[in-house]
Amino acid sequence: MMRYLLAVLLVTVCAFPAYAEGPALFKEFSYGQPRAEVEKLPGVLPCDEIAPGALCRQNQSFAGSSDWLQAFVFDKGKLSMVSLAGPASGDSYTKVVGVMTNNGFIPTTLQSGDKMFDMLKALPEKGEKAAIAELTAFEAAALNGDAGLTYTFIPKDALKGAAKYGSYAQFVFNAPESLRATELELAGDEMFVRFIAPRAALNDMKQQMESQKESF
After folding, report:
1. What's residue 5's pLDDT?
2. N or C: where does the chain have the smaller number of CB atoms within 10 Å of the terminal CB?
3. pLDDT at 22
4. Model-level pTM?
């Protein structure tokens, strides 16, 4: 799945030295961390079915549950995402959202199938009260439908003045490389929590595009 040029997939905690070169993803893990370092974690195994070169481990703890599958996804040998996959339930959904909000992250976009609600677009166009009402209606319709629902959470402090950009995509384009984001996806009886660095990923994509110098 690609959304705003951000590729994503399947996370949790472990005792491992922090890698300080890139933006924080989750706990001790940072964007750009070498794959060779992650390979040293206990219980880690290759899981190419998740993504080429991905590493996974079972039975990790997060949001009150200890049965998450933790996945590490890499781009050119460097960590680009940490993700968790587990069973979806009303209780687990509530606990995950609680963890997000208690860490200062708030929902910025919601996507269900080919439909999307962008809070940064709705706020300047409709005002806060109407934008919140629209978000609530979109969420309810998605939760009662069969197309699934994906939330994108951004730290509240990072969103100060963000409405002036007019959309989430423009906000990311103008954000500092340290920007963190978290996605929560509900897909049938499964739930995915993904920890990403959208601006850093966008910078890497831009550098890869600019490095292509072939004449035609």
Report:
1. 28
2. C
3. 87
4. 0.86
The whole-angstrom separation of Cα 105 and Cα 99 is 9
Say if strands 190-196 and 78-87 run parallel, antiparallel, or are unpaired.
antiparallel
Q: Name the residue among 153, 131, 151 with its Cα closest to residue 191.
A: 151
Q: Is 140 helix (H, G, I), strand (E, B) or coil?
A: helix
Rg (CA), the chain: 17
Alpha carbons within 13 A on the beta-carbon side of 99: 16
Cα–Cα distances in angstroms (integers) from residue 209 to residues 175, 200, 202, 213, in the given order: 20, 14, 11, 9
CA 58 – CA 69 distance, rounded (Å) = 5
Q: Tell me which residues of the chain have a pLDDT lower than 70.
A: 1-21
Distance CA 119, CA 107 (A): 8
d(CA 135, CA 141): 10
Residue 82: which of 179, 183, 210, 195 has the closest Cα? Answer: 195
Q: How many C-beta atoms surround the C-beta of residue 115 within 10 A?
A: 13
Q: Which helix (H) or strand (E) holds 83?
A: strand 78-87
